[in-house]
Amino acid sequence: MRTPLRPLARIIEARDQGHNPDQIEAEERAKRNLVVQNKMRRRAESRLMVLGLAFFVAFATVGTRMATLAGSEPVEPRSASSIPQIANQRADILDRNGEVLATNLATTALYAQPPLMVDPLAAAKGLAAVFPDLEEAKLVKDFTGKRKFLWVRKKISPEQQQRVHDLGQPGLLFGPREMRLYPNGRLAAHILGGASFGKEGVHAAEVIGVGGVEKFFDSELRDPAQEGKPLQLSIDMTAQAAMRRVLKGGVKLMHAKGAAAILMDVHTGEIISMTSLPDFDPNDRPRDAIKGDPSDSPLFNRASQGRYELGSTFKLFTAAVSLEKGLAREETMVNTRGPLKWGKFTIKDFHDYGKQLSLTDVIVKSSNIGSARLALEAGAGAQQEMLEKLGFFDAVPVQLGEAKRTRPLLPKRWSDISTMTISYGHGIAATPLHLATAYATISNGGYKINPTLLKQTAVAPDRKQVISTATSTSLRKMLRAVVTRGTASFGEVKGYDVGGKTGSADKPNPKGGYYKDRVISTFASIFPAYDPKYVLIVTLDEPSIKTHGEMRRTAGWTAVPVAAELISRLMPILGLRPNVASAGNVQYTSADN
Predict the structure, then answer these.
(1) How many helices (H) and strands (E) does the chain have?
(2) Most exposed residue of 27, 127, 276, 343, measured as fewest CB within 10 angstroms of its CB?
């Protein structure tokens, strides 16, 4: 309850004693003021105490931070932002010798914000002058419409950036970019594949792989945990450059539609070089083909995607079956009397080889009839077993997405006639990469290898032997004989003891049947034949060359000379020394298959 300023009891008493009652009121007021003053003083003192403590803590914190910074290493400050950051770092790709195949380059993107523009028409006209591929009318429509943002160019050069800057037009803005750069241009284009922008912002853009190893290893190349560790491939860039140069010359000389070549280490499965023509520049990767034959697109990798009937190169697998099953030896005579009729089908040889040839000569002279009879004797089961061991029933397990999706084309019903035609490479379609894998396996002692585009430090310790060492040795002798006295005599390279097998297959007509004047010519080679280190596959699409008054299309006249030139160029690059003892005179014979 409130205490009155004039307490009644004291007032009455003061009046009775003759005192002034106002004095009592003044005393009461003084007491109350003293209580209020004491309360306000205590409150002020508390506030000053809190404020002083706050200043003390603040100065102590600043002093401590200053002391910490003075005693620490200098570090660039980093700004924190609630905006999600775009990861635009991507690791480099190197060849086996450390040469850069793919790296990153700082560049600039150009974008427009039409609402900020003062003169959209002048801006459109100026951009059309800087970038001739841009349409001025379309730019005017975009700048004067309802759009508030649009990309003009994702990548521009410093010179172009300066010219745009000189236009002096507000609303034309620049953003930092990191683009993928391929210093070697078209070299190894189908292996690298190329990259493009993924998630984009005005301050950064995500670089993602769109083909080849860039796409296959996309997550590893963009993984921050890898800390930018480069991806090292098995490719030798010097060998790759030599292969592309020679193969391009071969395509021009042989009037071929396209070509593919693969050089592989027969022991590790490393792909040392691989080329497909026509090719493209991954710095300016073309769009995927929408219509027409996919093989007409420069993006089509003939080495790993092109499924072809590889002709007489398959005869070596037929010989392998006969040797493995103990049905024949190198000198076993085989019936080659022809033509061989089977129902409505007739099998012929390119030349009449007489009544019989040895197993070796069936391969050397490339007898279809001899190969068909050998396959029929062994049976379809044995043939399928061998081809499956050599990888012709599955896609090639190499680090290319398109290769993993490309399985060989096999007959729906493996009849006797299928067995005979497959024995000499017809009725089955596979890629040159399948063929390289199989020839590496049969020439390295019979050990199954898996091709790889990554550099290997040693031979895989757990590799499986799928054919015997003795069979492998016999097959290498046959391949050497094909070059010294058979259909691949133009493939002899002095000092390198080349062995190989030719194959010429009529090209299928999409409308049915086969073309009469179009072939796929292939030469599968190994060297040195006595102790193979490399396998080389050369495939030409629709080659033809006129020599000795005749138009030649078979592999002996087309693919073999190109392969010989490749071997002579590649081996010194790879450090393979010639065998002086075998570099004598060479006698050349016919090259009809």
Answers:
(1) 18, 18
(2) 343
How far apart are the C-alpha atoms of 243 and 231, rounded to whole Å?
Answer: 23
DSSP state of 217: T
Q: Output phi, psi for 548, to 5 deg.
A: 55, 35
- The residue written with tokens 């430090």 in the block is 457
pLDDT tens digits for 135-174? 989 999 989 988 889 888 888 888 999 999 999 888 899 9
Q: What is the pLDDT of residues 249-287, one digit of tens each?
A: 999 999 999 999 999 999 999 999 999 999 999 998 887
Q: What is the pLDDT of residues 378-414, one digit of tens each?
A: 999 999 999 999 999 999 999 999 898 999 999 999 9
Q: Verify that 341 and 407 share a domain, yes or no.
A: yes
Strands 231-232 and 93-94 turn out to be parallel
Cβ pair 44, 51 in contact under 8 A: no
At which residue do the structure tokens 């098995």 appear?
Answer: 234
340 touches 417 (CB < 8 A) = no
Domain that holds residue 114: 93-232
Same domain, 324 and 276: yes
Same domain, 206 and 308: no
With respect to residue 87, please indicate whether it lies within any of the assigned structural domains.
Answer: no
Contact 306, 405 (CB under 8 A): no
First to last CA, the chain: 126
CATH of the domain at 338: 3.40.710.10
Looking at the fold, whether 133 and 221 belong to one and the same domain comes out as: yes
| Residues 184 and 260 grouped into a single domain | no
Question: Given the structure tokens 């003009």, which residue do they identify?
Answer: 152
CA dist 127 and 137 (Å) reads 11
Q: Which helix (H) or strand (E) holds 432?
A: helix 432-443
Closest CA to 417 of 381, 390, 380: 380
Residue 354 tokens read as 């007489």
Please state, as a whole number, how many other Cβ atoms lie within 10 Å of the Cβ of residue 193: 25
Cα angle vertex 518, ends 513, 520, to 5°? 95
Please check whether residue 505 lies inside any domain of the structure. yes
Q: What is the pTM of this model?
A: 0.80
Distance of CA 159 to CAs 101, 108, 163, 409, Å?
A: 26, 11, 6, 52
What is the DSSP-derived secondary structure letter of residue 528? S
Quote the number of domains for the chain.
2
The reply to whether 98 and 153 lie within a common domain is: yes
Backbone angles phi, psi at 23, to 5 degrees: -65, -40
Among candidate residues 210, 181, 216, the one with its CA nearest the CA of residue 198? 210
Task: State whether 275 and 213 are in the same domain.
Answer: no
- What one-letter code names the amino acid at 417? I
